[in-house]
Amino acid sequence: MFEGTFLSLLPPIIAIVLALITKEVYSSLFIGILCGGLLYSGFSFSGTVTHVLNDGIIASLADAYNVGILIFLVVLGSMVMLMDRAGGSAAFGRWAASHIKTKFGAMMATMVLGILIFIDDYFNCLTVGSVMRPVTDKHKIPRSKLAYLIDATAAPICIIAPVSSWAAAVSGFVEGANGLELFVRAIPYNFYAFLSIVMIITISKMNFDYGPMALSDRSEPKEDNITEKNIPLAGTANPNPPVSAKGKVIHLVFPIIVLIICSVIGLVYSGGIFEGASFIQAFSDADASVGLSIGSLIALIITIIFYLATKVLNFNECMSSIPEGFKSMVPAILILTFAWSLKAMTDSLGAREYVAGIVAGFADKPAIMSLLPAIVFIIGALLAFSTGTSWGTFGVLIPIVVNVFGGNLSNELMIIAISACMAGAVCGDHCSPISDTTIMASAGAECDHIEHVSTQLPYALTVAGVSVVCYIFSGFIRNWIVCLPLSIAIMVGALVVLKLVLGKKQA
After folding, report:
1. Could you tell me which of 12, 119, 101, 90 has the C-alpha nearest to residue 428?
2. Which of 189-203, 226-240, 252-266 has the lowest mean pLDDT?
3. Is 10 helix (H, G, I), strand (E, B) or coil?
4. Which of 344, 352, 385, 412 can pair with 428 through a Cys bridge, CB separation 3.0 to 4.6 Å?
5. Chain mean pLDDT for the chain
6. How many C-beta atoms surround the C-beta of residue 311 within 10 A?
7. Rounded distance, CA 86 to CA 159, Å?
């Protein structure tokens, strides 16, 4: 009855609005799931219960891809706990204190690390958070700001990295054209990704924050970076575990390097590199869930052996860190489970088909073809924001855009529209409180999830607004050599104006 209509978007809208109003994410997500079940069953009690449990929560947890991501999450939690207990994080904090002297330097170091870890957004969020948290804490950078820095260099970086799980996903959604070639050609037009980096550099250099982030920055106590409101999402059962006095920087750096190497090997292994596929082809065919699970498990084993060999931890201490790491990720796992279940509700109501029909309708009007990139960006952002998934948005919009242009790679407007689809999906994913990447960023920074969402939203919307303008003129100019520098200039100019206008109010 409600399938394929605007009401198919009602469950995520309700969940998002409730989360922002109540600042409580668990009940908000569950109410959204319940709303989806009611609409699907026609308000039947038994039908609602069956759909919510069997088709929603149980199906989400039974999905092999989702289980792989949960395994990856748990293993990373265990590795972070091991690095903390081995004293690696503390040693890195001491090293950073002598080398990173300023707040600006700490934020730039966080951004650079986020850019370097471009393989996968999940891996990016948790690794950057665990490494840079002691450094940003020392320089009194709020956890909400750290979460924003992590989030803005996770999906936005992955979507412009040809060797990443995201490139593989996008390539897989393209039929009738060379997916990897299309992805590479679309990179210079991905304004949201590039402008997110420009945003970080500019506001850091100007020492300027606005919106809820400015209030968070000024409310931070001098003696501690964590407020009562800023309770960690991934809080551990034992908040002050015993830390080895033998820890050195190598006890943090070595596990991370091993994790990166093993994750890359795991990804290309899942793509068939040992069965004769080329490296690029293996990455295109990689299963991120399988590859990251395998890579992280191997990295965990190597890390334990390394700690035992260097006698920084004994066997019992290593083993006790594993369940503690699991416990630290339980809140993130619960939110992810509810977010996946909510996505299942919107899928069952035909939300993707409803949005696909809207896009196809726009494409049938030749008079607005030059505006199609901007339209696709806005629709992609709204769809990803409502469903909390970039990849699901790719799967809906990219085939439509390719079909509109007949898969003609010589048509520059198609390349721009594909890039707008990817940028819009990342934008919506970046803003959405039910996005798994947003949840991971909160977990990595150990920041309250709703605080992270509310503080970063004005920043993401600023970049989104500038991106829309850029896609409007790029639809007519159709030359990235002109459009990309122009977009950067507009972004910097917009932030300078914001500082002039809002800076006086904050003074």
Report:
1. 12
2. 226-240
3. helix
4. 385
5. 81
6. 9
7. 34
Are 415 and 114 in contact by the 8 Å Cβ rule? The answer is no
Nearest alpha carbon to residue 405 among 367, 377, 376, 363: 363
Is residue 333 very low, low, confident or very high in pLDDT (cuts 50, 70, 90)? confident
Residue recorded with tokens 């050195």: 248
Tokens representing 263?
A: 């994750």
Of the candidates 443, 326, 396, 340, the one whose C-alpha atom is nearest the C-alpha of residue 66 is 340
Give the pLDDT confidence of 223-251 residue by residue, as tens digits.
Answer: 344 333 333 444 434 445 577 888 888 98
Kindly give the residue spans of alpha helices, DSSP state H, lying in 86-120: 88-99, 103-116
Long-range contacts of 162-166 (CB under 8 A, 24+ apart): 162/187, 163/118, 163/119, 163/280, 163/283, 164/118, 164/119, 164/120, 164/283, 165/119, 165/120, 165/121, 165/267, 165/286, 165/288, 165/291, 165/292, 166/120, 166/121, 166/390, 166/391
Contact between 230 and 447 under an 8 Å Cβ cutoff? The reply is yes
State pLDDT tens for residues 88-105.
877 877 787 778 888 899
